[in-house]
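=== RUN LOG ===
request id: a7f3
mode: sequence -> structure
chains: 1
length: 351
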Amino acid sequence: MAERLTPPRPPSRLKREIAAAKRRVRELRMIGKALVATDHPVMAHIIPMRRCNLSCAYCNEYDDFSKPVPVETMYRRIDRLAELGTTIVTISGGEPLLHPELDLIIARIRGNGMIAGMITNGYLLTAERIHKLNHAGLDHLQISIDNVMPDDISKKSLKVLDKKLQLLSEHGVFHVNINSVVGGGIHNPQDAVVVGTRALELGFTSTIGIIHDGSGQLKPLQPEEREVYRRMKSFEKKNYSRFNHFQDAIADGKPNTWRCRAGSRYLYICEEGLVHYCSQQRGYPAKPLDQYTRDDIRREFVTEKSCAPHCTVSCVHQISYIDHWRAPQTISATPVSAEIDVDVRELVQID
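=== RESULT ===
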C-alpha cells in the first residue's frame, strides 16, 4: 500500500507575526538606504522563465516554448544585482512557478540580503508549494485577478483562483497582494470590487490597476470604470495609496508630470540578461547586466524618458516616487517602443 503523505501544517500566528516584523524592519532599512544615496537600484524585475501556462489576450510578456534560465546563470545575475546595491528583486515572467529551481533562486536573493518578491498567476500553487516558498524566504507575492468568471480575455478569474487564495491565506507567511483591474478589455468593471473585497476577507492587501496599451501608455477609463476605480482606492492601505496617486490622473485621461528613474532606481532584466527600462520598453538600453555599472545608473537617473507622461507602469512610478523631490533630469532619451512588435494590451502589475 502506498504511503499517505501528511499534509503540511499551517504556520502558527506567532510565526506569521515574527516574519511580518522582520520583513518590515528590512523594508525600513531599504527606504533609508534609498533616501541616503541615489547610485544604486531600489528594485529590479528579473525573468527566470518567459514561458507561461496561460495565454491571456492582453499580455505581451510570455511565450509557450522558452526553456528556464539555468539556475547558475540566475545566480550570477542575482549576485551582480547585489553588487550594484539593489535592495528588492521581484521575480516575474512568463510564469515563474514553471521554473524547476525557483526556490533556489529566491533563496539566493535572500542570501544576498535583498528583499524577494514574485508575481505569479497562481495556478500552480499548492499547500506544499507555498511551504517551499516560505522556506526559501519569499517576502512578497502578487496575483492579478482580472475577472470573477473566466472569459476570452483572461482565465485569471476569482472562480478559478479562490481555492488557491484560501491556501495562501492558510499557509503563507509572506505578504500577499491581490491586484484587480479596470480598463479596456475587461467586460465587467464591477468584478474588481468583488475581487478586492475577497482579498480583504482573506487578510491580504488589495490594489487596483489600470490597463495600459502595449507600450505601457495611458488608457483613459470610461465613467463606470472611473466609479469602480474610486471605490477600489478606498480598499488600499495608506502606503499603497501614497505611491499610487499617479493613477488618479490616468483614470481621468490626463498625463503625469514626474521623473522616471527607469534604468537607474528600477531595472528590468530579461531572460537574456539584458537591462531594459521596463517590461513595456524592452530594447533600451539593452545592455548586459554583467556590464552594467554605476555610471549607467547615474546617467539614467538624470535621463528624461519621453514615454513618462502617459506611462501607467506602476512599479516604475512607485520606485521613482522616492526621488521625486531631487535631481532634475537633464538628458533626453527616446524609448524604442515603436520598434517593439506588440499590438496587445498588458495589465499593470503592482509591486
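=== NOTES ===
The mean pLDDT is 87.
The longest strand covers residues 175-182.
=== END ===
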